[in-house]
Write a structure and sequence with these properties.
It is a single chain. By secondary structure, this protein is mainly α. 68% of the residues lie in helices and 4% in strands.
């Protein structure tokens, strides 16, 4: 059956959509994670903690939809990537899921008893549910950039030769700390526009300024490490953009600094790392000037720029192998079939705008600052 879009075009579209979904998750659930990570540091008493928690209480469940959509898209559009990454990073993913399970339990159970020790324990559970995923997601990205220790045999069976502790090497830890700084900045910017001015607002502003500076420093340092360390791969020979999804048919080689090649060939891609540096500066300026919209816009741009930098640097690679470059998964050799990608695209064109419209409507309805008066008098608040 002749389809209206070529196979190579669909592969690139779905690579872009995967990036959109990951960015959507970071922009929405990202500030939830950031606020949870900030909880022990911006709130000193129970009322302040409730103020902080209720700044995200109305939207955090809906924001997690982006996480589910991202995982589903990887499963359906990039089955090789899903199989290798979720099996290779199994223990790390288990750690993330265990931490994220603490979030709904913490939200629901924290206010069930007035006992201070009871509430403190759940507050730390919420902190864990925000800080641990932020760190591990960044560590995972760092491992993807350096290469994952997996190989595929002739029957395309995946074998992972790494360990959980092996994921935490210096560069991946730098990426993990960058992820935490990025999301803490995003969370601080959200608190700036969502809660009333007062002690919590002031503390969040101070921490947000520090997070912005740390994000700039770590992002720049990460770029230097990518340029100077043995990071990057290239495809040898002609690219079969419409070929079968068989990684063993693609000849890939590890080349130091190859992740910077795309910026030399396509200068427009430099917009991503520039955003990754300008965004935190705008957020910093917005926080210092008391312009909350600028702060949140800057933190959002920083998130988009940092995540887009990773994807654009690696294109067309999605999951490179550090021990067997030929097993590396790319846009051209790891996708679902032509028909599957087309049907999924039609479904996405229909339903993704509905999700976006509904999300925009929800935020419009819930627009406004949370105040101490709300916390003390609204029976629906946590």
């Amino acid at each position: 059956m002749e389809l209206p879009l070529d196979y190579d075009v669909l592969r690139v579209i779905w690579w872009g959509l995967m990036g959109v979904l990951l960015i959507g998750f970071a922009l929405t659930d990202g500030f939830d994670l950031g606020v949870a990570a900030l909880l022990p540091f911006v709130a000193r008493d129970d009322a302040e903690r409730r103020l902080t928690i209720n700044s995200i209480a109305a939207t955090w469940e809906g924001n997690q939809v982006w996480f589910i959509l991202g995982g589903g898209a990887i499963f359906a559009a990039w089955p090789f990537v899903y199989a290798v990454s979720f099996s290779g990073f199994y223990l790390a993913m288990f750690l993330v899921l265990a931490a994220m399970i603490l979030r709904p339990v913490g939200f629901k159970y924290r206010s069930k008893k007035p006992d201070a020790r009871w509430r403190t324990r759940w507050d730390w559970a919420l902190f864990t549910g925000g800080a641990v995923p932020a760190l591990v997601f960044g560590v995972a990205v760092g491992n993807v950039l350096t290469g994952v220790p997996f190989r595929l045999d002739s029957d395309l069976r995946a074998f992972y030769d790494g360990t959980l502790l092996g994921l935490f090497h210096p560069f991946s830890l730098l990426c993990g700390l960058l992820s935490v700084a990025m999301l803490v900045l995003h969370g601080a910017a959200w608190l700036a526009i969502k809660i009333e001015h007062g002690p919590v607002h002031a503390r969040a502003a101070r921490i947000g300024q520090g997070a912005a500076l740390v994000a700039i420093l770590l992002f720049a340092l990460g770029g230097v490490m990518v340029a100077t360390m043995n990071m990057g791969m290239r495809i040898e020979g002609a690219v079969e953009a419409t070929g079968p999804s068989n990684p063993r048919l693609t000849q890939s080689v590890a080349v130091a600094g190859a992740w910077l090649d795309n910026y030399r060939h396509y200068p427009w891609m430099l917009a991503a790392p520039i955003l990754g540096l300008i965004g935190p500066l705008l957020a910093l300026a917005g926080i210092r000037a008391g312009r909350e919209a600028l702060a949140f816009g800057g933190s959002s741009l920083a998130t988009v720029g940092i995540i887009a930098t990773v994807g654009l640097s690696m294109f067309p690679f999605i999951l490179p192998s550090s021990i067997d470059p030929i097993s590396s998964l790319t846009v051209w050799n790891a996708s679902s079939s032509h028909l599957t990608l087309f049907v999924m695209l039609v479904v996405t064109i229909i339903f993704l705008p509905l999700v976006l419209l509904y999300t925009a409507w929800v935020y419009r309805v819930l627009f406004g600052r949370v105040t101490m008066k709300d916390v003390r008098t609204n029976p629906d608040f946590y």
